[in-house]
Fold this sequence. Notes:
Elements: H1 6-13, H2 17-34, E1 36-40, E2 46-50, H3 52-67
Antiparallel strand pairs: 1-2
Helix pairs in contact: 1-2, 2-3
Amino acid sequence: MKELSNDVILRAATGEADALEEVLACYEPYINTLATKPVTLASGRVHYVIDEDCKSYIQMRLIEAILKWRVIPNDPAG
């Protein structure tokens, strides 16, 4: 997984769309894994698909959580 910079995290916490997209892109492989569901075909064979509704739900919950973060300013005076 690609590491996110502090700058991207801070911008995402303020709701910047590009930063939120970067966070979602970083976590996409993990989200896809969580949203993958088995589907049994008529032949009895199991096929795995990404449940797009589940994926969207996870992404929205992640965005909601990020937007709740409180950014504490760094005090250069100490």
